[in-house]
Specification:
Helix content: 40-55%
Structural class: alpha/beta
CATH class of the largest domain: Alpha Beta
Largest sheet: 6 strands, mixed
Number of strands: 10
CATH architecture of the largest domain: 3-Layer(aba) Sandwich
Distance between the termini: 52 Å
Oligomer: single chain
Strand content: 5-15%
Shape: globular
């Protein structure tokens, strides 16, 4: 793309200079204002926080600011493009935090892919923030990074590529089951993809009581008989596939009630046609879904994608702003399974009686979404007893 092309492209015009800025909340107009905002007045606040660190949540920005952290190894569908090229996405995430949830966020990209270095860097940055949103970090490294940070920090750590996707998928699926009048426990699901999103979707569906679920990767369905499984995939094999399916993902789709694609690739029409009557197809790869939505609609009761130009968009912005808003409001130390399930239920409930085949999930512009999710998450945090003592 030439310089002249960049100058007329509206995408580049919008991004020129970045998409976010720091804005002061205190105005300094005279010497008195300066003495209150900075020296000598600020020393009183520093001394108070030194005596009681919990006061930092009241007298600094910490309680309402999230760090959006990435190493640039799994950016959108672009893959490992590095930290500088990932920065526009992190800025965009910060923009969405503010516009959709009223939560301030700071994009931070790290020039390392080493797990220990990422963990140590985030731990050292953590005193400045009320929460950590991990973003676009490749699997399986993302699992270890998130787990270790959760163990070492007393603030919420949330890998959105995993849990944001999972929460929105569960909400949409819960509403879709209302249309076919069948409970989650009666459904057989096939998940294509055993990366961050695929693992998290599988976990949350198991927690929600799904009937049976099989997960596939590039080598086919994951099952306990495979000798190439290590780490997370080995654990997934032990928790899923009660039907003992083997072979290809497309083969596993025969008679299945739900297909969830979070891996890319292409699923043949014959496989979609072989699913059960009133099947549900969630083809979430972007920009090219695993299943063509128009083709899927010939066979499936409900079709969802990750795209904004089709109905039922599974978009993480439906989840993460409200989740962090609720967690920060009550001073949660973590985001628990209960908080994630509560977020999914709240999101599904926004649709309410308006549920339809083309409306199983709210629009990202529905202003009820973030407050509803935040309220549910805050309530679940209180009930789960995961609040910092001073809150």
């Amino acid at each position: 793309m030439t310089a002249s092309d960049l100058s007329v492209d509206p995408v580049f015009a919008l991004h020129r200079g970045g998409k976010i800025e720091i804005r002061s909340t205190a105005k300094v107009r005279d010497a008195e204002g300066l003495s209150l905002a900075y020296t000598p007045g600020v020393a009183k606040v520093c001394e108070a926080i030194a005596a009681d660190p919990g006061l930092a949540d009241t007298y600094t920005w910490r309680s309402h600011v999230v760090a959006v952290v990435s190493d640039g190894t799994a950016v959108l569908g672009l893959g490992d493009i590095g930290p500088l090229a990932a920065l526009p996405v992190m800025e965009g995430k910060a923009l969405l935090f503010k516009d959709f949830g009223g939560v301030d966020a700071v994009p931070i990209v790290l020039d390392t892919t080493d797990v220990d270095e990422i963990v140590e860097t985030v731990v050292r940055l953590a005193p400045s923030f009320g929460g950590i949103n991990l973003e676009d970090i490749s699997a399986p490294r993302c699992f270890e990074i998130e787990k270790t940070l959760q163990e070492r920090l007393d603030i919420p750590v949330f890998h959105d590529d995993q849990h944001g996707t999972a929460i929105v998928v569960l909400a949409a699926l819960e509403n879709a089951t209302r249309l076919i009048e069948r409970p989650l426990s009666d459904l057989r699901v096939v998940v294509s993809g055993a990366g961050a999103a695929g693992v998290a979707v599988t976990k949350i569906l198991l927690e929600a009581g799904i009937g049976d679920i099989a997960v596939g990767d590039r080598k086919g369905i994951i099952h306990s008989g495979r000798d190439d499984l290590v780490g997370m995939k080995e654990r997934i094999a032990g928790a899923t596939n009660s039907s003992a399916l083997t072979g290809s993902i497309e083969g596993a789709m025969r008679g299945a009630d739900v297909f969830i694609g979070v891996s890319g690739g292409t699923i043949a029409e014959e496989a979609v046609a072989s699913m059960s009557p009133d099947a549900m197809v969630f083809a979430l790869a972007n920009p090219d879904p695993e299943v063509d939505p128009a083709m899927a609609a010939k066979y499936a009761k409900v079709v969802a994608t990750g795209r904004s130009d089709y109905p039922n968009q599974i978009n993480n912005v439906l989840a993460f702003p409200g989740i962090f808003k609720g967690a920060l409001e009550v001073g949660a130390t973590q985001i628990t399974k209960g908080m994630k399930l509560a977020a999914a239920k709240a999101l599904a409930d926004v649709v309410g009686d308006d549920v339809a085949t083309d409306h199983v999930i709210p629009s990202v512009f529905d202003q009820r979404v973030s407050p509803s999710v935040a309220e549910a998450v805050a309530k679940a945090a209180r009930e789960g007893g995961v609040l910092r003592p001073h809150r």
